[in-house]
Amino acid sequence: MASIYDLKPRFQNLLRPITTRLAAAGVTPNQITVAAILLSVTGGAAIALFPDRHFPLYCVPVVLLLRMALNAIDGMLAREHDMQTAAGAFLNEIGDVVSDAALYLPFALIPGVPVALMVAIVMLAVISEMTGVVGVQVGGSRRYDGPMGKSDRAFLFGLLGLLLAAGLEPGPWLSFACYAVIALLSLTILNRGRRAVQEVT
Known about the structure:
Layout: H1 8-24, H2 29-49, H3 55-80, H4 86-104, H5 115-137, H6 150-165, H7 172-200
Helix pairs in contact: 1-3, 2-3, 2-4, 3-6, 4-5, 5-7
């Protein structure tokens, strides 16, 4: 199914000159991965500390865009500049789920946001990424199938941050949106599991 992840090659092409310069300067993929984690933790901490303020929410799209850029750069450094390591692969996968949890869970602290639904979204997001990793464990490829992959979640949370920062009050619309995301995440998990099995049978 279609996903914003499909745009990744174009995004990487834009970042390739920067990646080449970073490689020449001796920057490693793990350093970029840690920077992405710290960026997400900082953004989430700002929301958690000031859940009734608009400024941290305005920063969410910027944090997510920078994080996506850093994630693309660390992958290109590893693959295109011969810096792939087992530790790096482990850190990359764990870093993604830690970053998601750190940045998205604090949304549950915003007044009016449905806490249980937001927690469910984060939990399903973690399960969906781990399902993608299991594809490798069973002898296939790392699965990135949609319709609610990492890039799609980033787009939706960035949009949510902007809407709430602009003064749109949480209400039934937000609960409906959360249920829709939960359904799409559940479908993503099923797609990744099913296609991983199909790949090795």
